[in-house]
Amino acid sequence: QLPLSLLKTAQNHPMLVELKNGETYNGHLVSCDNWMNINLREVICTSRDGDKFWRMPECYIRGSTIKYLRIPDEIIDMVKEEVVSKGRGRGGMQQNKQQGKGRGGGAGAGRGKMEPLFLGRQMGNICDSIRNQDKKRL
């Protein structure tokens, strides 16, 4: 869920995509689907060796060929805020809880006030680790 929500938020923002074959694509994200296939516009493609460049008005990248995506920090922060705010209000995140019926019990039907905080922290840890990996690469 996290990578797709991150990509949905990143629409119309610049990003760098590195493929498994070493090529990189810099452009603005137009759209993405559930398989992480993406469309970019205003694209600059760089060869694996970094010695050849191509400019393209748009391109399509199959999700299974992607090694990693570099997304601006402000997008990561926007996604973090969305995840925390979505859990608020009546009912919260109840659909993700077990109903607590039958053997083995499970969580009761309470109001679920802790899930949004937990998700927020979890999201923060994931986003921080993404940032730290980017810093190590530089």
Explain how this protein is built.
Residues 101-111 have a biased composition (Gly residues). It comes from Oncorhynchus tshawytscha (Chinook salmon). Residues 86-114 are annotated as: Disordered. Pfam families: LSM. This protein is α+β, with helices and mostly antiparallel strands and 138 residues long. The protein folds into 2 domains: 10-71, SH3 type barrels (Roll), CATH 2.30.30; 72-138, no CATH class. It has 3 helices and 5 strands; from the N terminus they run H-E-E-E-E-E-H-H. A 5-stranded antiparallel beta sheet has the order 4-3-2-1-5. Strand 1 (14-19) and strand 2 (24-32) form a beta hairpin. The longest helix is centred in the C-terminal third of the chain and has 23 residues, at 115-137.
Q: In a nutshell, what does this entry contain?
A:
The protein contains three helices and five strands, in the order H-E-E-E-E-E-H-H. It is of the alpha+beta class and about 140 residues long.
By DSSP, the count of extended strands is 5
The helicity comes to: 25-40%
Cross-sheet strand order for the largest sheet: 4-3-2-1-5
The secondary-structure element order is HEEEEEHH
Strand coverage percent: 25-35%
Question: What is the helix tally?
Answer: 3
Report on the biggest sheet. Answer: 5 strands, antiparallel
Low-confidence stretches: 110-123
Family: Belongs to the snRNP Sm proteins family.
Keywords: mRNA processing, mRNA splicing, Nucleus, Ribonucleoprotein, RNA-binding, Spliceosome
Main location: nucleus
Subcellular location: Nucleus
What are the SSEs and their pairings?
Elements: H1 2-9, E1 14-19, E2 24-32, E3 38-46, E4 53-61, E5 66-70, H2 73-86, H3 115-137
Antiparallel strand pairs: 1-2, 1-5, 2-3, 3-4
Helix pairs in contact: 2-3
